[in-house]
User: Fold this.
Amino acid sequence: MIASEAVKERVQIPLNPESLSAERIGYLDGLVHQARTAAAVFTQFNQEDVDRIVKAMVLAGLEQAQHLARLAVEETKLGVMEDKVIKNMVASEFVYNYVKDKRTVGIIRNLPERNLVEMAEPIGVLFSLTPITNPTSTVLFKCIMAIKTRNAVVFSPHPKAWHCCAEAVRIMYETALKHGAPEGVFTCLESPTLPDNAYLMKHKDVGLIDATGGPGMVKAAYSSGKPALGVGPGNTPVYLEKTADLNTAVVDIIISKTFDNGTICASEQTVVIDDEIYDEVLKKFADLGAHICSGKETKLLERAVIDPQTGFMQPMAVGQKATDIARFVGLSVKSSTKLLIAPIQGVGREHPLSVEKLFPVLAVYRAKSVGEALRVCVDVNHAGGLGHTAVIFSRNEDVIRKFGNVINAGRIIVNSPGSVGALGSVYNDLAPTFSFGCGTGGGNSTTDNVNVFHYLNVKRVARRTQNHMWFRVPNQIYFNMNAVENLRQFPSLSTIIVTNPSLERIGHVDIVRRHICPKTHVHVQVIPDAEPEVKVILQGVEALNFYKADQIIALGGGSVIDAAKIMKLKYESPEADLEYLAAPFLDLRKRVIQYPTEKTNRARLIAISTTSGTGSEITPFAVLIDKDLGRKVTLADYSLTPDVAIVDPQFVMSMPKSLTADTGVDCLTHALEAGVSTFASAYTDSNAMQAIRLVFKYLPIAYKHPNDEEARCMMHNAACIAAMAFSNASVGLNHALAHAFGARFGVAHGRANALMLPHVIAYNASVPTKFMPSPYTKGYVAHKKYATVADLLGLGGHSVDEKVKNLIAATAQLLDELEFPQSIAELGISKKEFEQAVPDLVKIAVDDPSWRSNPRMPLMSEMAELFWKAYEGRGTAKAADSLQEQTK
Assistant:
């Protein structure tokens, strides 16, 4: 609340406590000590105790409202006694109505759906500065706030309002004490000075400075190094727009600007009036007791009430009646004049009356358009009132919205008086207050009407919350020999088969064709047998559009199925930006980008896998190569998951041994990593464990006896089952390392996985250097889950460590059976070449999202160490020794 002292405080007031005597310091320390003791006792009070005291204080404030108002006017010589009575009653009754049911002790809010409880913690000792403009009402308000929140207050009133404030503090204190409040809960400085304020602002036992006063005082509070609540200067612009209810608007503005002789800093300062209604509005003002100044009178007025040196209001006018100001200036007005209205032509120093005027003088401006009106209101807002208050009278919602958008004000009052409207709870549902926060525009920490919650520390008791999880796979999966026959049940007018040349050559495409409805038009889109490029995708989309396809059959390995997924995405949503959709994320539910949901076209995607490893036929992932950017683009979204998966082993019977081994180990790695993932669940674990069991049993048979139908069938199923696990639990560090190494040295993905796998198991089974944060797991369980795998495989062992060693040994033995190289060195990569590559490999692995669900958070140094272990070779003994070293 800005008053006459505020004019002087536009320049920062130096606050120097060094001039205080030892006796004065002892006095001030005594006040704070009393307050600190009271605050300590207050922490033991419950909500019922607090509410009982508050209610008694409110009743006392209402009973003494007139007495305190009279004292305030007599002492300060500002304002209107009747209006100050209303202020005191608002500060008591209206504030009580707002706070009475609000919990401020113990649990104040319980959010069970978020496992969150909010609890109140008192601040302790408040040092409160009060203004000359609203002295007693501000004291009443702050006393109620303090008791409601179990805080103690040391008051420092404005020196010219000390007696009335001290009386208000006395009434509140005696009432509170009578009803059980601790002694010393309120104290009031006698003969307060600026050095007193400076000392108390920096006092070690003061928890919060509550500064309602001039800008210099507020700035000193914020500069003290203590937490502070402050207010800012107001210069309220008003837009009176042509659609407004003019009778209501004019009366509301008069009520507001004359209320307590304009001492509330939210009162109207400059009214911008549309040209079409300008003359009518001024006539209505005149009819209701306003004096409309001529140009000459406006000049006289501005020279008298605005300091030409500072550009701010003169203290002598603050809080005075319009007739007294007119007499001082030399204007001839009626004795019944309520308000002086001065037309101005602009905003700024050359238009002195466009600034804040805490007295019943109102500037008006004639605007030719809405645009001009908004511009002038913004100029007024920026001329000393940023963040405070603005008012609009209009019935045009579009204009109201524009006004709200362009004005920087914590309170934008619509079709109501500015001063009383901003106080809250009279004309609107704003929190009732006597401290207007102005946000950063006014140099404050909040734009709120300062209320009970600003006098509390809120503690949040956050219980562990496990986010919901999911298990999502295609709703139709057909498996075992001749499962392709199920194609007949899917009607289609136009189907495109996406495949690669070799599969067309060996007759797999013909098998698929035979089971498609004869009436269906079928087109075969042959693509290279490699990770798809952008141009391949676009060619496929072009074919889909040309044939108006309603069904896509992806026949091939992971690359072909990935290509088909992306083709479908671009076909159904042509505007989809693949680079944008590939943005990295940590949690699928919280990622920044969203995949398109509106479809231009619709097509069913049926995936038929011809390898037993990637599991792409049921996963929500797809990878393509962007040669222009020189990198892989990974897409991940459940909308990419095929609609139907067909897992028919007849399409893998002819897989060569090396591909059988590579894809089989890829499948094993998927299952092992999903099993220990931080996103693992009972649903994914069951699939991961079954896939691991099938791989260990059937992969060696499928490798050595390619024509063994059962082994091929079980391995094909294992790949799909493992994909069910990792498409919902993700993979881990092994994949991140393999991706980096395989891409750099052109090594098949399954082979790269094999080189890393024993070392990563040993690494994850040891005590982590750094744990991976995860709400889904309790404690570190990776080693225990590996031990469970060992039990499932019947590997033996009496302790968890023994079982993990046996699993590592069994994995190494399986890899040997599949004739994988034991080390990177065996691939013919020299140590020098590898050494040069390791830093880049680590950087690439760090950027790979796969490790983010690894049970152990890998450090870059540990990634480098794992690369070197893979270079040197696994060997059963080496892997076991590695585990032993890491668990020491």
Summary: The first strand starts at residue 107 and ends at 111.
